[in-house]
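Ticket #4471: structure output looks truncated?

Reporter: J.K.
Steps to reproduce: submitted the chain below (507 residues) through the standard prediction queue, then opened the result file.
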Amino acid sequence: MALDFTRRGLMKTGYVAATVLATKASIVSAQSGEGQKTMESPGDSGWQEITPDLTDYISGAATHTVPAAIRERARLHILDTLASIIACNSLEAATLGRAYAAAMSPDGQSPILGSRQAASPVDAVFASAMTAHAAEINDFIPSAYVQPGPAIVPVSIEAARANGRTGSDLVGAVIAGYEIAGRLPKAIGTRNLYLAGLANHGIAPTFGAASAAASLMGLSPEQVDHMLAYCSQQASGSWQWLLDVRHIEKAFVFGGMGARSGLQAAYMAQLGFTGVPESFDNENAWFRWRAFQGEGKDHASLVDGLHERYELSLAAMKRYPVGGPTQPAVRALLDLRETIVPDQVEKIVVAMPGEAATFERANMPALNIPYLAAIIVLDSRLDFVDAQSLSRQENDEQARAFARKVTVVRDEAQEMGEGEDRTESARVTVTLKDGRTEERYVAYVPGFPTHPLGKAEVEEKAIELIEPVLGRSKADRLVALCDGLDDAQSIEPIIDLMRFDGDAVRS
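Returned output as attached by the reporter:
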């Protein structure tokens, strides 16, 4: 049976066993010598050397000429990430990240974004990144199965601050970080990573964050080469984050780990650490690991088309503070709530593609459709805090009772064919107690690369997240500062706005 290597397939019941079995099978195959025909042998004439192009690109990334449209997308993704940090600053993953940073480096001077605390550079970006992914609201690259913003943006801001770089330099570095983070899993082959039991969500941000930092720190191509060796040594992350209910280990894998490891690798190279040269071409290097030589690899794509096509054009944003596959159902429920009241509802059926049962019984609130349906219908809105509230999901008896009226079913007719651009859909049918039904079909929620959020929509989302914490005037100010980054001589005004107490006074 072929593995269902889609996001939905990865989240279905039994994925852990499938991963273990697949990994064991690949190990046995390697030990027996089977499958070697799929691996480039040392000195293989088919291998395209990529290290020189890669290191040159990363070294000069902060000042590369980039199309204006891509620079605008970068500024919007910076804003989206900062808004996520502000909104998530009081969540458990955020407070734990700051506690760890304070314990490790109590005398540090680097700002932890979303707080007034400071720590060493590496500990500070770790805490900032944990905050950025403390909930299901940050950006992602669907084709790479990567969420780049939480790690790359905090690292870029810290490296720009520490090195006195301009807003334009920051934007260029972020573009490079997204470029490497998005390209790397596809160059390796996302299926190869899965079969090896490695989560690209942790690996790619390490390289992306390091690349962004290197460009702002002025590392030479030779230093970048050494840096990549130490990224390779730290590249890690397993798929068990799918079982994380409290969103702490997930925040570590998607955000904190990549930020910490990436910036650390850049500092090591700057301080003179040397590694095995040509770490992406050396015949025994990580990039040429046997597990990465299977179906779907395209190693040359890591550098092919640099300066011509951009991963930011493939990046997506979440319009609502919930997981990607649940967005269409949420949109439909919000529409339906305008015409129904809770007491009238007999049952709700949500039909969606893929393994729908996953989203019917998910322990994580932002992925549990019955819970989300309950709070939308009961509250007449979707509140950011409630969408993340494990306490309400477990203890609100009214919400629990309503959630039992909701069924999530698989609709194969909504599923995409192989190779089609990824999107999401849902059909929600509400049956009322008098027998009437109301239905909404949502083909997609704007945010995916096929239907991206426009500038005004991204800014609207950011204000929705920022205003409850900092007030409208500061929300507007941060939007304006991010929009004007390419003309900013300093990023300190942004950092100043990102420094606040958890109980910040609205202004």
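Triage note (M.O.): checked the attachment and the full token line is present. Residues 1-43 have pLDDT under 50 and may be disordered.
Status: closed, working as intended.
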